[in-house]
Amino acid sequence: RKPIVALVGRPNVGKSTLFNRLAGEPLAIVDDTPGTTRDRLMAEAEWNGRYFFIVDTGGIDPSTGGKEALSVGSADYIQQIRQQAELAIREADVVLFLTDAITGVTPADQEVAQILRRNQKIIEGKPHPPVLLVVNKADNQTFRSGAAEFYELGIGEPYPISALHGTGTGDLLDDLVAAF
Ligand code: GDP
Ligand code: MG
User: Fold this and answer.
1) Ligand that lies nearest to the alpha carbon of residue 168, given by its number in the listed order
2) CATH code of the domain in which 141 resides
3) Is residue 28 scored above 90 in pLDDT?
4) For the EngA-type G domain, which residue ranges apply (predicted)?
């Protein structure tokens, strides 16, 4: 089967923007599952002849379905981020963990990083599924250099990209399809 790539990260880091950039035809709305992250959006994508499914785990985005906005740092907000990350680790073959170069590392990013690391399994000596750390909104050289700050999340090498302008996504996708 085609590999599944999940986009995770707190609201407003650019998951939907990257999804729209990578997605071909939208395939399906993954409907509400009670008690879990809601309204996941899936599409087929392709890079260098490698096909995969990309999933925007957008349940915590107030913009994607008219759900009430959750205030940053509230118990519900943290809970939704937790569920989104746990679900992605269970279902995905590779996880793209998005962060934001403009804001820098936030407590919610630390929370997501911790959940991802804790829920990875070790298969043949390697953490599974692999997580690639994306530093989005790195629209210029200053932000691209500053992305090194994100090493502190303990997820490995940060990939600075601009989902808006499309820069950096080639290197990211090369390593993404190599991780399948
Ligand atoms: P999501 O909540 O993670 O799905 O984030 P969105 O994709 O909805 O993006 C949130 C905001 O960030 C929007 O205003 C986007 O236009 C903006 N954004 C997304 N990617 C970039 C980027 O690469 N650079 C900049 N400057 N803004 C971006
Ligand atoms: Mg979104």
Assistant:
1) 1
2) 3.40.50.300
3) no
4) 3-180
Residues with a CB atom less than 6 Å from ligand 1: 9, 11-17, 58, 61, 63, 136-137, 139, 162-164
Residues in the chain: 180
CA distance 155 to 131: 7
pTM of the model: 0.90
Cα dihedral sign, 149-153-157-163: negative
- What is the rounded distance in angstroms from the CA atom of residue 108 to the CA atom of residue 121? 22
**In total, how many domains does the chain have?**
1
Greater model confidence, 62 or 104: 104
Pairwise CA distance, residues 76 & 79, whole Å: 5
Host domain of residue 53: 4-178
Centroid of ligand 2 to alpha carbon of 164 (angstroms): 13
**Phi/psi at 31 (5° precision):** -70, 170
